Predict the 3D structure of the following.
Amino acid sequence: MKKNTVVIVGAGSTHTPGIIQSLLQKKEEFPLKKLILFDIDEERMNMVKSIMTQFIEEAYENLEVISTSDYKEAFTDVDFVFAQIRQGGLKMRSCDEKIPLKYGVVGQETCGPGGSISYGIRSIPAVIEIIRQAKKYSPNCWILNYSNPAAIVAEATRILRPNSKILNICDMPIGTETRMAKILGLKSRKDMIVKYYGLNHFGWWTDVRDKEGNDLMPRLKAYVGEHGYLPPEVVDHQHMDPSWIETHKKAKDILATDPTTLPNTYLKYYLFQDYVVEHSDPNYTRANEVMDGREKHVFTECRRIAEKGSSEGTTLTTDNHSIFIVDLATAIAFNTKERMLLIVENNGAIKNFDPTAMVEIPCLVGSNGPEPLLVGEIPQFQKGLMEQQVSVEKLVVQAWIEKSYHKLWQALMLSKTVPSATVAKAILDDLLEANKEYWPELK
Ligand code: G6P
Ligand code: MN
């Protein structure tokens, strides 16, 4: 069986221990030859490295592992790049969330002015650089990219690096499907076959069936209409903070906006903007929760494991995020043709929608990459929402390419989260100031 070399880019992330654990758990399906950690922040990476060595010794006999901040060392002879960088770190996430809130506008990691526009402009060059390095040192490798905002990154790579072997991915639908499976009393989300379409963090399920073909939508809708995506018992630890629980619950109201489908929870930022703003604390946003919660937990646990010299009793676990990326690598490495939701060029899959849009739809994944499945025609409501949002995403990428202030302003004006051109401009000017270190000079 072929063994694979993987480099994790952004290895200092709080998600890396989970990815390492998933790689180890799936060592039969996806055997490793070598594992490389790469990060420009060596301090964070070293914390993760200390436990990685421990985990690996407990699972593999002879696995070569290295950590480095040198591109050549990291990218040479690799089969897969797992990219999960956060340009500007949680500090800039915090600015992205807080600045729009000052103007009564949604402040969110990947949605609205902070998420799509501010973070988007920071991420584009960083992901393009990963593609450049990967092509230079391992021209045949696949880049599996979690780096956000995935919608913007996907559009940027489509235009700027059209023939790259990069797959842009998201774990949100997977997380929600795990919840659906629990609601239905199924063992795994893989017991369901789903139809889904949309943009990243902006989509709908149109069909959920069991392996025998029985329609599970009626039961799901009845449950979600009452409780949102909150199953009777705990599902995973990834999205369990109080603000996430609130988000899962809110799916109940999103469902009411179109009872024929089941919604992605991110739609709340576009359909219940006023509610979101009212329920946000402009001085303490999700970035703060993550810094005080997950980040502390992961790094305290890393230190404890390193000191003890054993991972026994660890509270660090695999989750949807980590399992999905390893499943995807397995599908490519071993041509499994697993059906997975990926962000790909529409190219006619959604018949009545821009063929050049990057959409999130089911694909069969094999060694030659994804084969997108046909979606067909979508209703006016979704089409209208998606056209507006995809225009925001395309304008952000055009603005980056042309270094255009005006196009960024237009992107902000078009965002459903922003009430007027005046507010759009005020937010843009604040974001520009906050991103001085990261954004190019705009004309
Ligand atoms: C989901 C999304 C990711 C996003 C994350 C934020 O997993 O798919 O794209 O980055 O949520 O979660 P957090 O716990 O960091 O707020
Ligand atoms: Mn995502």
Summary: The chain has 16 helices and twelve strands. The chain has a mean pLDDT of 96. Residues 150, 170-172, 201 surround manganese (II) ion (ligand 2) (CB under 6 Å). The longest helix spans residues 112-137.
